[in-house]
Amino acid sequence: MKNKKILVCDDDQGILEMLELILEDEGYQVVIEPKSVNALKRIEQETPDLILLDIWMPVISGDQILRSLKSDTEKAKIPVFMYSASTDGKVIAKAAGADGYLEKPFDIEVLLANIDDLIKAYPMG
């Protein structure tokens, strides 16, 4: 189950570092991308098993990235878990086609359980 690759895209360096440490500690390979403009290119290069995506980011928002992914037949298969501090984040995530959503600040145990469930539900490789 482990040794799966998770790409995290968030403009908040603190969250990126925290998620990287926690996910690596859980045995995942972690790729972090702080710039939303680079997210699609990184996803192309890395082919992650799961994507963690913040909704509110400068330049390109998480839901715009997700809509682009969903329009690509190959990448549409990658499960995407979104999170946000926004009150309407859940609505935005659902409308964009996210496979899961958590409100910030999130409980790490809940996040890990969600990641585990998604990776089990979408065995990619």
CATH class: Alpha Beta
Overall morphology: globular
Write down the Rg. 13 Å
Rounded mean pLDDT is 95
Largest sheet: 5 strands, parallel
Number of strands: 5
**Spatial strand order of the main sheet:** 2-1-3-4-5
**What fold name goes in the CATH topology slot?**
Rossmann fold
How many distinct folded domains?
Answer: 1
Total count of helical runs of at least 4 residues: 5
- CA(first)-CA(last) distance: 10 Å
The residue ranges in which pLDDT falls below 50 over 5 or more consecutive positions are none
CATH architectural grouping: 3-Layer(aba) Sandwich
Query: SSE string, helix = H, strand = E?
Result: EHEHEHEHEH
Structural class designation: alpha/beta
CATH superfamily: Response regulator
Helical content class: 40-55%
InterPro entries: Bact_response_regulator, CheY-like_superfamily, Sig_transdc_resp-reg_receiver
Keywords: Phosphoprotein
Protein name: Response regulator
GO biological process, one term: phosphorelay signal transduction system
Key terms:
125 residues, alpha/beta, Rossmann fold, Sig_transdc_resp-reg_receiver, Bact_response_regulator, phosphoprotein, CheY-like_superfamily
